[in-house]
Amino acid sequence: MMAQDVIDILTSNIDTLWVIDCAILVFIMQAGFMCMETGLSRHKNSINVALKNAADFGVSVVIFWIFGFGLMFGTSYNGFFGTDLFFFKTDKAEYMTYFVFQAMFVATAATIISGAVAERMKFNGYLIMTVLATGIIYPIVGHWAWSSSYLSKYDTVDQLLSVTGSVKTTGWLSDLGFVDFAGSTIVHSVGGWIALAAVLILGPRIGKYSDANKGKFTGSSFPLAVLGTLILWFGWFGFNGGSNGAMDETVPLILINTFLAASFGLLTGLSISFILFKKPEPYYIILGPLAGLVAITAGCNSMTSVVSIFVGIIGAVIAIIVNEILNKFEIDDVVGAVPVHLAAGVWGTLAVGFFSDLDILGTDLTRIEQIKAQFIGVISIGFFSFVGSYVILKTLNYFYPLRVSPLQEELGLNIAEHNATSVEHDLISILDKQSQSGDLTIRGPQDPFTAGGVIGLYYNKLMSKLESSESEKEKWRNRISNEIQLAVKVQENFLPKRNLENYPVYGINLAAREVSGDFFSFYPHNDGVYFIIADVAGKGVHAGMVMAKASTLFEIMSRDKVDPDEMIYHMNNDLFLTKTGGMFVTAILGHYNTITDEISWVNGGHQPALLRDKNGNFEQIESAAPPMGVIQQKNKSLYKINRTKLNGKRFYAFTDGLSESLDSKGNEIGIEGSIRIIEKNFNDDVSKQLSNIAKDVEKSSGKNKLSDDLTLIAIGK
Asked: Residue-wise over 8-26: b if at least 16 C-beta within 10 A, else e?
């Protein structure tokens, strides 16, 4: 054996070994896609996404072996598709190596689609789409540009020539001079076009673009997505380096261009995120390097390092822009397959025409001609891939809906499609059950060896303490409730229960809480009746106690027939000396003489009193004195007595529970609104009038719950 023969054999073996190693690296990319897609998908769909990545690899390789490889690399039919090499079989190592390497590529094209349609596509529907993509669309467009990479290099051509005398080995795009070294368009854009067609047919995930989510769903694990990105980056050296087909002096340039484009793509995503959000946006940091890798794939062997940097930067910018456009039009691409693989792939393919070394390309085209060839390739492949897949998927969707039901989507495809549970899912189910039932005795799954199980462990400890605490709180709540009920009964005893049938005096009191800070009272005697309506500043039990004090003072002084000014003077000073917490009392108190039909009263910082004449006209009499309990008074001169004969008029006094109630627009009605509601419900039966007023206020308060205590008295016929 000659020395040259030895060198040739050694070189061939090294080349074969290099391609095999690169094929292994491309296979590892499958794990990268799985990690990235799983990390960017929600946890309830993580198992489904992972299984799709495993299943599409197996399906695509089998389909490629049966007829995909033949369609792509078989003897060409007018440059459009291959016609032989089906059920691929050979006894030559270099041929086997080539098949294995290309099989990794076809699996990549399928997996690109997986991430875009995640979380809402049926598993079976996805497998059908994988057959469509890897068995028809990808092999055909691959034949247009790459068929010669197999037939023209190996002795199959010689065998065919010996039989037919002629054989076509090149696709029509290859004949035009179209160049896509490692598949920016043929692999990545094709996958992106099919993904775009699929997401348009499927529509966005439920709730993705709701006001609550604003176009964002939180993935299960960003660290896992970043790990997937780094694995893809690692595998890409095999993707681009193996496309050379040999280990020669071209490989180092391919690898460094690949590395630089990705690195500057990452820096671009990082920079844009700082510019837009003033912080590193995780998603942009994933999009950036992947877009740079896709963009440089078409021309990594024919560009300088400086040009590859530029291509990577522009690729990242384009991917980010396209991603925002998709969100604007509510096109839901879970992992950014369309921005990264389609958009950046188109850019990278066109960049070959603009920036590649024409001598390295070897197409014998001028710069303008090369650019034209790249445009034709991008447009024709895009049209065939998108329109073809859209028509087929749309037709399939009509007969066999590709999307899971809304119920299945909400449940999560882990459960709906695979009946696969997890500790995290079980814990979420427990939490949901507990939130609906309020049962604190329910416990979640616990496992010290899983993240979800550890959370369940500490959650159960928390619930045990909470259950114990709630038990103690319930005891206190029962005790407090009993005491409040007692206070309510005590307060009820302060409201007038005397026989007032012979007196034209009426009142009503509704508490906003269990115990009211408002009260009214009537104290009759032979020639008339004393009356009071008061509002303690505050609510609840404390206010009720102050009210009880004021009511007691009123009763005592009414029994002694004290004049209204004298009465409020003494009540003020007593409350000032004995009240606590800075509380004060606004009040209208007075006397109605049933013989003379005269009413006299004093207003201590209270709402104005109202007088309604027979014609429905109202007069407001404002307060001229401060509330009781604010400051100690030395004499009663501050308290001015108002006097008038009713002569058919009706006297009204009320607390701010009426004037501060709300109208239909949610605004306080004020004094004028109070007058309107009094007039609206005017009735000869005064008691019925007050009851109707109270119902109106409750209705306008919403959920029939008062925002403040309501007390109202009326005097007159």
From this structure: eeeeeeebbebbbebbebb
Task: List helix spans (H) across 356-505.
Answer: 358-361, 367-399, 406-411, 413-418, 423-437, 451-492
Q: In the chain, pLDDT over 70 holds for what percent of residues?
A: 85
In this prediction the pTM is 0.66
pLDDT tens by residue, 513-524: 655 667 888 889
Task: Please report the pLDDT score of residue 584 as a whole number.
Answer: 86
Q: What is the distance between the alpha carbons of residues 571 and 126, in angstroms, rounded to a whole number? A: 84
Per-residue pLDDT of 560-569, as tens digits, reads: 888 899 999 9
Report in angstroms the alpha-carbon separations of 130 from 271, 277, 388, 393.
36, 37, 14, 11
To 5 degrees, how large is the angle CA 601–CA 604–CA 608? 70
What value does the mean pLDDT take over residues 586-593?
92
Residue-wise pLDDT tens digits, 73-128: 988 898 999 988 899 988 888 888 999 999 999 999 999 999 999 999 999 999 99
Q: Which of 271, 285, 296, 322 is nearest to 116 (CA)?
A: 322
Max intra-chain CA distance, the chain: 144
Cα atoms in the Cβ-side hemisphere of radius 13 Å centred on 3 = 0
Name the helix (H) or strand (E) containing 289. helix 282-297
Tokens of 242: 């193996």
Q: How far apart are CA 124 and CA 557, in angstroms?
A: 89
Output the pLDDT for position 163: 47
Q: Write the DSSP symbol of residue 627.
A: P
Query: Nearest-CA neighbor of 510 among 691, 348, 290, 364?
Result: 691
Spatial separation of the C-alpha atoms in residues 62 and 83, rounded to whole Å: 18
> What integer pLDDT is reported at residue 666 of this predicted model?
75
Cα-based angle 485, 488, 489 (whole degrees, multiple of 5): 90
Residue 614's contacts (CB-CB under 8 Å, 6 or more residues apart) are 648, 649
Q: Which one-letter amino acid corresponds to residue 492?
A: E
Q: Is the dihedral of CA 240, 241, 242, 243 positive or negative?
A: positive
Long-range contacts of 462-467 (CB under 8 A, 24+ apart): 466/440, 467/440, 467/441
Put residue 447 in one of left, alpha, beta given phi > 0 → left and psi -120 to 50 → alpha: beta
pLDDT, greater one: 413 or 551? 413
The Cα–Cα gap between 370 and 365 comes to 6
pLDDT of residue 39: 94
| N- to C-terminal Cα separation, the chain | 133
Question: For residues 124 and 112, what is the distance between their CA atoms, to the nearest angstrom?
Answer: 17
Measure the CA–CA gap between 456 and 458, rounded to whole angstroms: 6
Report in angstroms the alpha-carbon separations of 546 from 240, 535, 543, 593.
Answer: 86, 10, 5, 29
Q: How far apart are CA 174 and CA 423, in angstroms?
A: 53
Q: What would the two tokens of residue 174 be?
A: 């290859």
CA distances from 170 to 109, 149, 180, 335 (A): 22, 8, 14, 35
C-beta neighbour count of 582 within 10 angstroms: 9
Cα 468 to Cα 422: distance, rounded to the nearest angstrom: 29
Q: Are 295 and 347 in contact (CB under 8 A)?
A: yes
Residue 366 near residue 215 (C-beta atoms within 8 A): no
Residue 146's CB is within 10 A of a number of other CB atoms, namely 24
Residues 712 and 690: their CA atoms lie apart, in Å, by 7
- Give the distance from CA 97 to its chain's centroid: 47
CB contact at 8 A, 658 and 668 = no
